[in-house]
Amino acid sequence: MRPxxxxxxxxxxxxxxxxxxxxxxxxxxxxxGETHVLCTASIDDRVPPFLKNSGLGWVTAEYGMxxxxxxxxxxxxxxxxxxxxxxxxxxxIGRSLRAGIDRVALGERxxxxxCDVIQADGGTRCASITGGWVALRLAINALMKAGDVIxxxxxxxxxxxxxxxxAGQPVLDLDYPEDSEAGVDGNFVxxxxxxxxxxxxxxEGSTFSRDEMNTLMDLAEKGVGELVAAQKAAVS
Length: 236
Hints:
Layout: E1 14-18, E2 26-32, E3 35-44, E4 58-65, H1 84-98, H2 103-106, E5 110-119, H3 124-145, E6 158-166, E7 169-172, H4 176-179, E8 184-191, E9 196-203, H5 210-235
Parallel strand pairs: 4-5
Antiparallel strand pairs: 1-2, 2-3, 3-5, 6-7, 6-8, 8-9
């Protein structure tokens, strides 16, 4: 029934390769099926002005798609000319990653997580959050190894997955053919403990019931569990 022939509750193949760049304090390449995202984490000993002398750290994110990440070439976005979609996604990534951080323990420093989509086949924001957490974990490991951070500021894993109603059936981890035709589409960001960070759901030509939403939540919890297992394997 699914274009990929996957079961309704089956994730795409997940792989996370770490330390893929030379200079970033933390980096990984995450592949969720045919969606590939390069995630790097960079440490700065300064914080934004609104946090100066607060004793609190900050985690932020930037997101972008390479011009030929999709079927046809897109114009390269300059930072001051980013689309609304790009700005919304990078704010989501930043919010999601901050949910898993003790900002007091991090200390007065900023970590910027850059998520660059090399190839897109649906779920790029979810892959960015999941891979971004791995890059962040590795950067914080570097801080702890150097003795710059004493208490581990990472509270829990953070990962994200998409779910939706495609051809009348609830499905897990939508690829592009499903995402483009889904009657209901949702992105679920969760902690390793299954506590919710953020849920984005919308009906696109259809509506959904409370029971259907609960079914999608159950699928998302299953998917995030598999993503967290992949994160653990990547950073072990």
